[in-house]
Automatic annotation (TrEMBL):
InterPro entries: SAM-dependent_MTases_sf, TrmK
Listed GO MF terms: tRNA (adenine(22)-N1)-methyltransferase activity
Lineage: Bacteria, Bacillati, Bacillota, Bacilli, Lactobacillales
Record flagged with keyword Transferase: yes
PANTHER family referenced in this protein's UniProt entry, alphabetically: TRNA (ADENINE(22)-N(1))-METHYLTRANSFERASE
Protein name: SAM-dependent methyltransferase
Keyword Transferase: yes
Amino acid sequence: HLSLRLARVASYVPKGARMADIGSDHAYLPAHLALNGQIEYAVAGEVVKGPFENAAHEIKQLQLDNVIQPRLADGLAAIQADDRIDTITIAGMGGTLIAKILAADTQKLAEVKRLILQPNVGGERVREWLLANQWQIMAEEVLEEDDHIYEIIVAEPSIVPFTYNDRELKFGPFLLEQDQPAFRKEWLAELEREQVAIEQMKKAAQPPVAKIKEFEREMQMIKEVIK
Ligand code: SAM
């Protein structure tokens, strides 16, 4: 049984996809899709031995060896040309790490038709990478599970040039429009964190004036969005 978070990520994987799930841990996501006949083939990439063994074990247990390949590799190095991967999922990490993984090996993305990215934090870092590399956001989703709020970002190679402004990069172009309760909750919590941080900084013997100003600007931007 998949978590709501992974079920929502799974929902964006096209039927018949040849997918690579990078940072797959137990390979729950590709295993679920394979068991339901939703994918043709998957690579479950893991850089850490323990999670890689979890993935290999899960795949064997479910007799999915002919559909899913576990690979011990850093990021997109798990993908080989003859895998003919068309869809990549990267879920359950920070946005900075997701962007770093994508940036490290862009040739591996040449034939990829869809990225489904689920940053736990730092969605802005993911959207900045997408914009810089002309991957257009096709859908976004925010969801709450077990007191955590998660973002999902779905992107495809763009045919026409496009751009996002600072507000869209920070909050997500679709998430801004949707203005879901979980979205408001996420940014209200961020406001509170920043308020506390500012108060702490102001107590310092030499308050970092520039940093405080930056946080105040940030808070102003959030307030405008969730007002
Ligand atoms: N994707 C699963 C999910 O969403 O439930 C597992 C998320 S788990 C919190 C993150 C996984 O990413 C860990 O198992 C970690 O070893 C793996 N990971 C981190 N950096 C990686 C990299 N550069 N390449 C491959 N896997 C990586």
